[in-house]
Amino acid sequence: MVKxxxxxxxxxxxxxxxxxxxxxxxxxxxxxxIDEAGIDIILIGDSLAMVALGxxxxxxxxxxxxxxxxxxxxxxxxxxxxxTDMPFLSYHTDISSAVKNCGLMIKGGANAVKIEGYxxxxxxxxxxxxxxxxxxxxxxxxxPQFINTLGGYKIxxxxxxxxxxxxxxxxxxxxxxxxxxxxxxxPQQSAKYIxxxxxxxxxxxxxxxxxDAQVLVSDDVFGKFADFKPKFARKYGDIKSLIYxxxxxxxxxxxxxxxxxxxxxx
Length: 266
Ligand code: KIV
Prior knowledge:
Blueprint: H1 7-15, E1 20-24, H2 28-36, E2 41-44, H3 48-51, H4 63-76, E3 81-85, H5 95-107, E4 112-114, H6 120-132, E5 136-141, H7 147-150, H8 160-176, E6 180-184, H9 188-196, E7 202-205, E8 213-216, H10 218-222, H11 239-256
Parallel strand pairs: 1-2, 1-8, 2-3, 3-4, 4-5, 5-6, 6-7, 7-8
Residues 24, 43, 45-47, 85, 182, 205, 215, 217 line the site of 3-methyl-2-oxobutanoic acid.
């Protein structure tokens, strides 16, 4: 029996000062392989809008699409906790539709959801989701769904005052019930200060080494998405070249008559 990562495991990671890993996945086979590799949380990030569907921003993806990708990923996972990123406008209009939309991801196989930002309303959403039995991961610092109000891809929490503000928000999220918080594009020293003052773990997305966990977009890690590479992402492979080489070889073999061979026919 494979041991499943739960909110309790995540809590213990922080208590024991043990780092954990988070990677995105959008399909069944990728989820299966990264789960087998021991990744602790698999996130169906709304980054999939850009890296898998080719949209310009994360705004264009909807609840129905996120549920389809959640189903695919959840089917491939036995060990990791599966978290679905709630898309733009799926939890912003009113609490009952937020609960309904988040519930659809749980029905699709997710173990938790991630929601971006901080406001009185967001705190109420977190409280209600937690009461409903839906664990919530928060997301502060740079929040891509707010790109238009933030004025672009901008580092957040640069000054002591700004770091204090993120910490204040994080403490409110913690009180409302989140089990972890992503800190995106926050300077390392600010993220350290925030992490040291929280009881829930922080997950760095370009927020340095002092956070309790690290998250990256799998297509960046595998070297598959090549339109741009964030400064904080590390490329561990070159899937893009591998796909090109395999496709080119197949194309050549078909056209030269080398495929199929006698062993590949009935
Ligand atoms: O959408 C996403 O993939 C994310 C993570 C990178 C944190 O939100």
